[in-house]
Structure formats: C-alpha cells, structure tokens
Design a protein that fits this description.
There is one protein chain. The protein is α/β, with parallel strands linked by helices and about 575 residues long. It is built from 24 helices and 17 strands. The protein is globular and about 65 Å long. Bound molecules: iron/sulfur cluster. Iron/sulfur cluster binds near residues 236 and 314. Iron/sulfur cluster binds near residues 242 and 243.
Length: about 575
C-alpha cells in the first residue's frame, strides 16, 4: 500500500490542453530549461515540502505538466481523481500558468468537492481578489513566504480553528464574502530552511513515484540543481516582477532575505556530495555586499567542488571578485543580462552600467578561467526599436570576435506577458507599454490564442506586436549565423536552428492567413498544423544545448544520498 499524503502540490502545464490545442507557443522558453509549457515547478515547492514535513505534514509533489509532456497517454484527470489528500496546493507563480493551474483546480473540485484547493505564487498573490472568486479556488496564500502560513492554514482546517488568524490568507467566509487577512508573514532571512534535496529523494521513495517529482523534461540527461541565496532583489529592473519595487509594492517585502553565506556554501558542498551535475546559484552573491560573497567563496575553498557552478552577475564586477571565484571553484561559469547593447535602452530597462564595464567583467572572468560566460539580450524593452534590436546582434558579433568561444550571447523576446507587479506593469503608459490584458481572466484567455503573436500581452511605443515577433525571428537568424561563423556552434546545429526559425516565421504568417476564416474551417485548418506548430515552438531561436553547462558522465552518489536520508529525517 502506498503512503498517503496530507498535502499534494500539483504543478500544471501553462495550457492544460496543450496536447490537443493547435498553438504556436513560440520562443517563449528558449532560454530556460523548460519547454513552452513551463513544466519546471517553482523551487518554492521544495522549501514548502521540507518545512511541512519537518512539522509532521506529509507532502507529495506531482508534476502533472511533466507527466503529460512525457507520456501522451498519461491521464492527468484520472490521476487527480485517485489522489485523496487533505488539501491540494497549486502554484500560479508566473502568469503563463493562468490557464493550466485553473483547469487543474477545476478537476480537483470535480472529483473532490470537499478537499480544499489552495493557490500560491506571485501571480496568485497579485490577482488574489479575482482568483478567489473562481469556484474551484478555496484559498490563496499571498507573498513569497508561504511555508509557515500554509502550515497554519492546514492546522486551522484540521482543527476547525478560525481562519482570520492565518497570515497572508485570502479566503471566502461562510456568508460568501471575500476576506483578505493582512500580508504580515514575510521571511527576513532564509536560514530556517534545510538543504531540500534529501527531502525530495525521500518523497520519491515514499510514494514510489520518481516520475512525478522530476522538475524538467530532460532532467535524467541533464540534472541541473539550484541553490538559493536570497528572496527579493536589491535592483529595480523595470520589466522584472521580482524587483525591489515589485516585492515591496505588491508582496510586502521591505528588504531582501538572505541565506547566510555559511549555509549557501554548505548547500553547494552538499549537492556536490550527491552529484557532479551543474549547480546554479540563484542571485548575485555580491547583492548582500562583498563580505558576504567572500564568505561564501571562502567556505568553498577547502573542498573546491568540481561541479560546473553557475553564478549570476546583476552588475559588472571588479577583477578581484573573479580572482576570489577562481580560487574557490575550479569550474565556474557566469551569466549577465544587459538586455541591450544600447546604453540608453539598457538604462530605460533599469540597468545602469556601460559597455566598457560589461566587457571588462567578461575579460576578467575569462582571464581567470571562466568556462562559459552567457550574455542575455532581450526584445520588447522600453525605447528599443527594430533597428536597435539588429544593432544588438552586431554587438554580439563584436563580443564573439573579442572574447571567442567561451562567450555565448543570446537574444529572446520578453514574452508572453509583462510580469505582474513590475514597474512596467504598474506604470505601463509612463514606461511606454500598451497592455492588452487587464484581468487574470484576460491572461487565461490570451494563452489560448493560436500564436504567441496574439498571446503577447503588450506592445511598446517603439515596436508593435508584429515587429516584436518579426524582429525576434530575424535577430535569431542573424545570431545563429554569427555563432556558426565564429565556430561557437556546429554547422549542423546552425542549420537545424535556421530551419526551425524559418518554419516558425512561416507558421506565424499561415496563422495570420487562417484567422479571418469562418468556423469550423478555421479550427480545422489550425488543427491540421498542430504537429508543425509543436516542432517550431521547441527551442526556436537557439538549440537547447547552448544554454547548458557541459558535464561529463553525470552520476548520483547513492551511498551519500541514503546517508543523508537518515541524517535529515524529519522529527
Ligand atoms: S532582473 Fe534580476 S537584477 Fe533585475 S530586478 Fe529582477 S532579479 Fe533583480
């Protein structure tokens, strides 16, 4: 008999019916490990699970999105019908999940009307008053620190205690009115949470269900892991829903919560003990100051873990920082997002550094032995024109010629939606955006549009929706050719990517041609193209391997994992 969970955390695909609906999702996920259905569940699932388990609540994570993606015969509805926890938790963190999460919630209610359905995540919090009005949603936990409020909610439900005392909770009272308790529970540091991986291994064993725990489609081939350094950010990029402005304005976070440098170093070493896979360190180590970064790095120096370790740079850094990184990590990698080559455009996106500082940082890092330095540019930011996008590609050529093959530039659209709570979202007109969606329901509906051109929730004063889409493909083609010329990618990879981009552009035009047709011809024609849409939406503007950090013969250290399971067993 399998163990029964108290709480099942469900992760939905972005669009529930993605296996049936003919949608050209476009290059919306090219630069993240997920596919366009965003099958990767939020990292918050693991800290929620760990906190609750430590407090006697049995938690099971079920990545429905991944199961549906991996197996065309997997019946998500049947699985939901069989699950009988005390509560369901569903993430609606970023808006692209607006459709799938609500559909999954509706299925939970269909089969288990008596089991509470709880939502959480940034978008849930932002739209909590609208979200709670959907009949399939019972509770919304707001903010970025829902571990403890969720424990209190589950306890209150079990013991029939009043819900007015549960912090951060939006709920429906018995008379049908909507109640929003104050958002008062906001973590001030991240030290309470243990390294989560043993907990996930334990869960896989308990429910004999490894497949539902896997975070991304190719995890077994490429098992990337993550270490969190903070919640919040000290910066204010105009398009970012995780910025200082967004978090203080919409989620009551007055300042960043950091994990102590000793614990960050210990987390990295702990993962390095289980596997030689890449470790992504989330958040620029220098955010909390140079002393913090130095403390993390000195905590690694004695062991010098051999995993590829990926560090973020939110701003350029001095040479001394890269020397310290090199002394601690034999295989280090960096990434930075200047958004545009044009310093005025970059400034409009909330980043205030010049190209000279940017290039100095790249040089310092490579001189110190950085294995791979990724530089991300974006299409759809304030003050950017089509011409400026093409000049960004010229600048990529300059970077490639100057720094060689360890430098890898990328470009992708800001798509499909502006982040809720971001400066651009809140002050759209002032910043230069024209936004087509207003309510959560608008976003849910937009996800069902036949192409990402019509899902795109905005255009700018400088670029129409059509120009954003067309310049994305044009920029993708040019960058792909540049990378081939500079020997960064093979001829074969470049040819495959070029074919996908050309195919995607052709599909955009085909869809435009079909849309004026009357029903049912319109739907029939779109359905006939479904397979081609799917092909053209997978890693359109670059190959997925380009965003990976190479690892030779990855392995899991099973004796160490088993020891960790016993050592970190919840009390
Ligand atoms: S884009 Fe990065 S640096 Fe900018 S506000 Fe968001 S998290 Fe911070």
């Amino acid at each position: 008999m399998f163990a029964k969970a108290d709480l099942v955390l469900l992760h939905a695909p972005s669009v529930y019916d993605f296996r049936k609906l003919p949608i050209l999702f476009g290059p919306i996920s090219d630069l993240v490990p997920s596919t366009p259905i965003f099958e990767m569940y939020p990292i918050g699932f693991s800290s929620i699970a760990e906190h609750l388990e430590r407090n006697g609540v049995r938690v099971r994570i079920v990545n429905l999105a991944l199961r549906m993606l991996k197996d065309k015969n997997f019946d998500a509805e049947k699985m939901i019908a069989k699950l009988k926890p005390r509560a369901f938790g569903i993430d609606l963190h970023w808006l692209p999940h607006a459709h799938g999460s609500l559909e999954v919630a509706a299925l939970c209610k269909k089969y288990h009307p008596e089991i509470p359905v709880i939502f959480g995540g940034y978008s849930s919090s932002y739209f909590h008053e609208e979200l709670i009005r959907y009949p399939q949603v019972d509770f919304v936990l707001r903010g970025d620190s829902t571990e403890e409020p969720l424990r209190q909610l589950l306890l209150s439900l079990r013991e029939r205690r009043p819900l007015a005392d549960v912090p951060n909770l939006t709920w429906k009272s018995e008379d049908g009115s909507i109640r929003a308790n104050p958002l008062t529970h906001v973590l001030t540091d991240l030290n309470e949470y243990l390294n989560n991986y043993p907990n996930l291994f334990r869960s896989a064993l308990r429910y004999l269900d490894v497949r539902s725990l896997i975070p991304i489609h190719d995890w077994w081939e490429y098992p990337i892991t993550a270490v969190m350094t903070c919640r919040g950010c000290t910066h204010n990029c105009s398009i970012c829903g995780g910025s200082r402005y967004a978090l203080s304005n919409s989620y009551s976070r007055a300042a960043c919560a950091y994990r102590s440098p000793e614990k960050v170093a210990a987390d990295i070493l702990s993962i390095a003990g289980y596997t030689n896979a890449p470790i992504f360190v989330v958040g620029d180590l220098r955010q909390a100051g140079d002393a913090y970064a130095r403390a993390v790095l000195s905590g690694l120096q004695a062991v010098r873990p051999r995993n590829p370790v990926v560090l973020e740079l939110f701003t350029p850094a001095p040479e001394s920082y890269f020397k310290e990184v090199a002394a601690a990590l034999p295989n280090f990698n960096f990434e930075i997002s200047p958004e545009s080559h044009d310093e005025d455009v970059r400034r409009a996106s909330g980043k205030f550094y010049g190209n000279e500082d940017l290039e100095n940082s790249i040089r310092f890092a490579l001189d110190q032995g950085c294995s791979k330095f990724d530089v991300f540019f974006m299409i759809g930011i304030p003050r950017q024109t089509v011409r400026s996008v093409m000049e960004t590609i010229d600048y990529c050529g300059h970077l490639l010629k100057t720094f060689g093959r360890r430098l890898n530039p990328f470009i992708s659209p800001l798509a499909p939606f502006l982040d809720p709570g971001s400066i651009a979202f809140e002050n759209a007109e002032e910043v230069g955006y024209r936004v087509f969606c207003k309510t959560l329901e608008d976003y849910r509906q937009a996800l069902l549009a036949p192409s990402w051109k019509y899902t795109l929730s905005y255009e700018t004063r400088w670029m129409t929706r059509e120009e954003i889409v067309d310049s994305t493909y044009e920029a993708g083609l040019r960058l792909n050719r540049l990378k081939k010329e500079e020997g960064l990618i093979s001829r074969e990879t470049a040819e495959k990517t070029e074919k996908r981009i050309l195919l995607a552009g052709e599909m955009i035009r085909k869809i435009d041609g079909i849309l004026p047709d009357p029903e049912p011809e319109r739907t029939a024609k779109l359905k006939a193209l479904k397979e081609t849409f799917d092909k053209a939406s997978m890693a359109t503007v670059c190959d997925k391997d380009e965003i990976k950090w190479p690892v030779l013969r990855w392995r899991l250290n099973f004796p160490k994992i088993i020891r960790a399971l016993f050592e970190s067993r919840p009390t």
